[in-house]
Structures are given as C-alpha cells and as structure tokens.
Amino acid sequence: MYFIDAILPIPLKQTFTYSVNKDEAAFLKQGMRVAVPFGKSKVYTGIVYQVHDQPPVGYETKSIDHILDEEPIITSIQMKHWEWLAGYYMCSLGEVIKAALPGAFLLESETIIKLSSRNFQQEESLSDDEFVLYEALQHQSSLHINDARAILDRKNIVSIIQKLLDKNIIEVEETVYEQYVPKMKRYIKLAPKYTSEEKLRELLDALTRAHKQREVLMHLFMLNTKTKKPISSTALQKKSEASAATLKALIDKGILEEYYVQQDRVEFSGEASSEIKTLNEAQIKAYGEIKSSFETNDTVLLHGVTSSGKTEIYVRLIEEVIATGKQVLYMLPEIALTTQLITRLQKYFGERISVYHSKFSVNERVEVWKNVLSEKPKSQIIIGARSSLFLPFKNLGLIIVDEEHEPSFKQYSPAPRYNARDSAIVLANLHKAKLLMGSATPSLESYHNAKTGKFGLVTLKKRFGNVLMPDIELVDIKEKTRKKQMTGHFSDRLLEEMRDVLKNGEQVILFQNRRGFSPVVECTTCGISPQCPNCDVSLTFHQYKNQLRCHYCGYHMAMMKSCIACGSETLDTKGFGTEQIETELKTLFPNSKVARMDQDTTKGKHAYSKLIEALENEEIDILVGTQMLAKGLDFRNISLVGVMNADNLLNFPDFRAHERSFQLLQQVSGRAGRTQKRGKVLIQTYNPYHQILKQVSVNDYEAMYKEQLDERYNYKYPPFYRTIKIVFKDKGLERVQKASAWFGQALEMQFKENILGPEPPPVGRIKNKYIMNILVKIPKNQSLEKTKKYIENVWRSFNSIKEFSSVRVNIDVDNY
Ligand code: ADP
Ligand code: ZN
Ligand code: ZN
Description:
Elements: E1 2-7, E2 16-20, H1 22-27, E3 33-38, E4 42-52, E5 66-67, H2 76-88, H3 93-100, E6 108-115, H4 128-139, E7 142-144, H5 145-152, H6 158-166, E8 170-177, E9 183-190, H7 197-206, H8 211-227, E10 231-232, H9 233-240, H10 244-252, E11 256-263, H11 281-296, E12 299-304, H12 310-323, E13 327-331, H13 339-349, E14 353-356, H14 362-373, E15 381-384, E16 396-402, H15 420-431, E17 434-439, H16 444-451, E18 456-460, E19 471-476, H17 477-482, E20 486-487, E21 490-491, H18 492-503, E22 507-511, E23 522-523, E24 540-542, E25 547-549, E26 556-558, E27 571-572, H19 578-588, E28 594-597, H20 607-616, E29 622-625, E30 638-643, H21 647-650, H22 657-669, E31 680-685, H23 691-697, H24 701-714, E32 721-730, H25 733-751, E33 755-759, E34 765-766, E35 769-779, H26 784-799, E36 808-813
Parallel strand pairs: 12-17, 12-18, 13-15, 13-16, 14-15, 16-17, 19-31, 22-29, 22-30, 28-29, 30-31
Antiparallel strand pairs: 1-2, 1-4, 3-4, 3-5, 6-7, 6-8, 9-10, 9-11, 20-21, 23-27, 24-25, 25-26, 32-35, 32-36, 33-35, 34-35
Helix pairs in contact: 2-3, 2-15, 8-9, 11-12, 22-23, 25-26
The structure holds adenosine-5'-diphosphate and zinc ion (2 copies).
Binding site for Zn(2+) 2: 532, 535, 550, 553
Pfam families: DEAD (PF00270), Helicase_C (PF00271), PriA_3primeBD (PF17764), PriA_C (PF18074), Zn_ribbon_PriA (PF18319)
Family: Belongs to the helicase family. PriA subfamily.
C-alpha cells in the first residue's frame, strides 16, 4: 500500500492523502503535480508533499487521477519557504500555493458532457439537434462543449445541452486539462533522403519546370550556408517570396519537412549594449562597505539619498554575482511604474534578464517559471514585483529589495497576507544568499534593524555628480489665504516659480495626493483636523453615524458642528484632487501643455509609459499627479516640484502617516533638479511648523527617525510592538458584533490591555458585509509563536460555534 499526501489549493490547513500504486509511488516526488478527485465531483491539482506507506486512520483513500509532471516543478527550498510563509502569516499551505503558482499550473475543470448512465428509450421525443448530439455521444464516450458546437454547427448550443440535461439524457463531467500552451515556431528542412549532393542535383533537375518550388529550395540552401541555424518557415517564405501553398506543395511531395520548436514568449530583443559605469569615489566606498558588511551580515540596508547612484551599485553587485553562475532577484514595488529601470538594466545585462509580474499572462509566467527552474541563462536575473519571490530559484546568490520602504511590498488580501521584503530575508537565508535593501527614505523598521545591528548599514549622503539636493521651501497657505494671495489652490509663490521655470522651457511636476477611503475632516479656515486623544492619528469622519472615530483604539465622538480650534463653521470633508488642479491649470497657464498622471489616466496598458515618454520628450510642460510621481522616475529637465497640500498626507489616520509623509515628500522632491542646476521644491501647507515638514525641508531623515521612534515607543507600535489584526466579516451586523466580541473576550483573558477592539473600521461595511477588527499588540518580550498558537486555539473553538459559522475571519500578521 502506497500513499501520497497532497496539498490542494484551498484554505484548509491539512494535506490530503490519496492512494497510489507501487510504480507511481516510486515515480512521484515532492513538488510534482497530480490531478486528484475531491468531494463528490470536483477535480483539483494537488502538489505532492510526501510519499509514504502509512494508511490514514478512519477513512478510505481515493486514488489519484493522474500524474501531471515528469519532474518536480517546485523545489525543496520553495516548499520550506512556503511552509514558513504559511506558519508565519497564519494561513494554509494551499493558500500560499495558490498565490505562488501561475494559474496555468493549477489545472481547471472544464465542462465535458457524456451520456447519463440511465437507459433512454424515447428517441422520438428529441428535437433534431438534440438527437444529433445524442447520437454523437453514442459513438464517443464524451464530448467537449466546443466539439458539440462544431457538430451542430451553431454557436448557441448551451440551451440544447441544457434541455438534454433537464431530460436526464446527458450529464456533465468535470475534468482537468493542461492550460499552458507553449508557443511553437515552424521550421523547414530538406528531407533526409535528398541531403546527398547527387540526390539533390537530381531533385533540382526534376524541378526545372516547377519554377517557384525550385526557387524555394535554392533559398533554403543559401540560408543554410549563411546562418548554419534552423530556418523558420516565415524566414524562408520571406526570402524566396514564395506563397504558403508552394511551401506546402514541397512538403506534400516529401521534399521538405516541417518541424516545430517551442518558443519562449518572454523575449527581449537586443544584446547588452552599455558598459557598466565606473563608480565614483563615494560609490566605490559604499560598494566596499556593502561587501565587507556582507561578511558578517546577511542583510544590508543601503541608505542613499535620491539620485546618489544606488542603482549603479546594484548593477556592480549583480554583475559580480552572475559571474559566479548564481541567480539574482531584483525586487521592485510596482513593475508597471519602473519601465525606466528595466530598460536601464537591460542595457547592461541584455537577455539575461526576465521580468516577472502577476499581471503577465499565464503563459509568460509559466515560461519564466520554467526558465528559472532549469537555470536558463536568460532568467539569471529576475526583476519582479512581490510575487517574484515565489519563483523556483535553484541557486540564488543575491536579492535586492529596491525602495524597500514602499507599502506595496505588503499583500493585504487575499491570504497569504505577506510582506515580500520580510519574506525575502527568509528566502535569502534558505539559499545562503545575501540581501541588499535600498532606499532614500528607509522604513522605520528597517532603519531600526540597521541601527540595532540586525542589518548592516551603508550610507550615501550626496547625489551623484555633485548635483545639489533640491532647495525646499514651505509655503504657508493659511497666511496666503488670509492675505488673499491664493488663486484657486495656487499660492502666489508657486505661481511665480512656475512662470519662471516655464519661461525657461523647463518642466514642472505638481503633486496632490488623496489617499484613503473616507474623507478627513478639515477646517477650511485654519486647516486643523480633529485628532484622537489616545493615539497620534487623525479622527476619521463616519458619515453613517455622523461620528468621528479613531481607527486604532476605537475612540469616537459625535461630529462637531464647528471647528474645535478656531470655532468657524467651515468644516469640510471634501478635499481636492488632481483633476481639479488640472482644470485650474488650464485657465492659469493656457499656453502650457498640461497632463495628469493618476489611477484614472493610467488605466490603459501603455498609458503610463506614454506619459513618461511624453515627459521625457518634453511634450508636457506641467504634469499633475498622485504618489505615482514619487516612484523612482529619473527626468533631466524638471526643475520645479510643487506639493499642492501636504496636510492631507500628514492627517491620514494611520500610525505611519508621519513616516509615510516624510517618505513621499522626500521622494517627490527627489524628482527635481537631477542635473547641474539646483532643483526647487515648494510645499504648500496650512501648518508650516509641523515637525515632519521641517525635517523634509532640511532633508533630515535622522531627526525624523528619532522623533517617530519615540512616538512608536510611547504609543506601543512597531518596531517596539508587533501587531496582528483579526478581521471579522458577515452580512449580519449583530452577528459580526457578537462573534468578534466573543473572540475579543477570549483573547483579553490572556493578553489583557494589549487587545484593541473589536471596533468597526472607518468603512464599516464593504460589499454588504459588516466588518469588525481586533488588533493584538505583542510586546517584544512576548513570544510571537505562543501568541499565534493561542489565537489559533481561540479560532478553533470559535469555528465550532454554530451561530458564528457564517462569519469570515481573516488574520493579518504584521498588518502595517
Ligand atoms: P539612485 O538609484 O540612488 O536614485 P541612480 O543610480 O539612478 O541613483 O543615479 C542617478 C543618476 O546618476 C543616473 O542618471 C545615473 O545614470 C547617474 N550615475 C550614477 N552613478 C554613475 C556613475 N558611476 N557614472 C556615471 N553616471 C552615474
Ligand atoms: Zn478651524
Ligand atoms: Zn485612537
């Protein structure tokens, strides 16, 4: 008796045991795929976890349907990494596998029809079409819906099938099929019997009257001697100007033979074209420090100001690692926003780079997967967003996490709710590889780790080529409003600078960001937003209850009628967005070309690159945009950056709002003046005395870090406390309240005041489901593992309560 334990791509924690025969047991290895029956009629693709001979207790095993792979498509390191992910982020291995594998690897059921087992005799009751299908099914045991369509030669056959189903004549069978279709390219060669010179001459003589066919043959020889490579049918047709019919005639005669070769879809044209740049003194120093830091640290943080030349240092390190034959993973927050960087790296490394992104077609992803698995040179360097972490690296030498502070490294939904940066550290360890994080504005956690010796730390303080950091000026728009020096949302200072810059034929970037879902209440007279007394966050306006609430501690108060600070009744919940700015610009600068970059204008596939290109070609004078503008763009001609309103960033209800504001403002400012002329940045704000803005204006990361760290300490937030968020969702408000209260009380018994909530999030209902959150704060000296165990036990008991069976529970570890 032989068995396998398989992991199925479903949220259930356990593996599933199936029986296999002796040969199968000998053949199967961990990481191979098998099609297995599940439940009454479902078929799933399972991943073999282990092969053994221990029959499970208490149930009869089913046998597997068939084996789908010749070789494992998942490595043992991947399996270990995924087990870590499932354990750390409290989800099932099946959920990790579903996120990790390209969809085409997880076979899909597809509709197949067959005759029902019941004997059917009243053939005369069938319509003509029904009868044709019925007859066809007597000759073939089953039919694909597409076959049925072809047989009847009509498109809409669903109704006919439905009728046959209703009459119990046929039944639907679910089956699985391989979805991945590699792209095949057709090649042409001479049939073997003609390859001797003598035979060939005879052949050409015989073809003297078939002029076109002869022509094709002559060109085939010419191409053959010239390239010594396989000749594709397209190349041959083009050269000989022959028609497909001529080619076919030669194949039919047995003179030529066609054959197919699998093509890789993810191709880059062109070789490496640029020399790797010689590093300058500061870069050499930083590079040396990274190298020596790697001798004692597995992870190093490179803190280098914008445009200090970090990328060139990465390039050097990559070059070194691939020379030893190892693989490199270069992780970026969002691939769509980094076309510039990809092009730059391709110039250095040519075809050794593959890009991997969850938005790619399944086929493209399958190909990169296979290339990485077989260590093909063309996938030696992978550039990818967070999902590239799941690729089957065999021999990883280096991981680079660029812009490590970016929030998009975190996946919020669905499970696994993982942070790709943190998970990359574990992956690097499994490969005994090194990890380099880079940022001009590191996350507080990473910088803290570096400062406390967990990571190495290397700093680059100056921009490359002695380009100065931009000159940052804060503009007090409260004052400007009072003095009537505002035109719409533009201060006279900003307008003045813009006119200057545009007159010189230089470009302007304007930044306006409205993050978050619910509007922040802001007094339009004094700019104050009400704050939570218990937390350092703004209260969020809840229209539903006409309340102001704190997202983190549950504090709430009735919405006030007038501003608590200045008493005026000018409370406003509507901010202004990029669109309004764009409209204002058209009247203010009718002769300038204005464009907008935000989620609305970059929906199309190439919309984003088109905007970048237009900016590079100076077809745009003023670009208005959201935080998309902050993402590592490198432009030559932008000498002015304007921030329309810094306050809505600072007032965002999140314990990281200040840190994020600093990062965003620094990054946006970093777009200005990347060439010799010093760039200018104007930040408009109601609150020019805000510490964060001061720190931004003098480029003082260190001061920001110290102050924010104090606040985190005082308010018990990361990096001093870990947090786990438990989210409850249900259609019934009362049920979700009751369920979360039950869960919360069970946790409070153990963790006391470190349990916050349950409380509804600012948007208390999404998609008709009411939501309640519990936040578990975990002090440094409390075991994370034991805490999770405890939560899991509570969760298990919770799941056995019938009343709560409809309530969905999501657990988000390190939810920030
Ligand atoms: P960062 O990644 O820190 O923002 P980059 O690596 O993009 O900085 O460098 C900023 C600019 O300086 C780029 O245009 C880059 O080509 C140029 N640069 C950086 N290092 C060198 C070098 N060693 N030689 C020539 N140009 C360099
Ligand atoms: Zn006010
Ligand atoms: Zn609070």
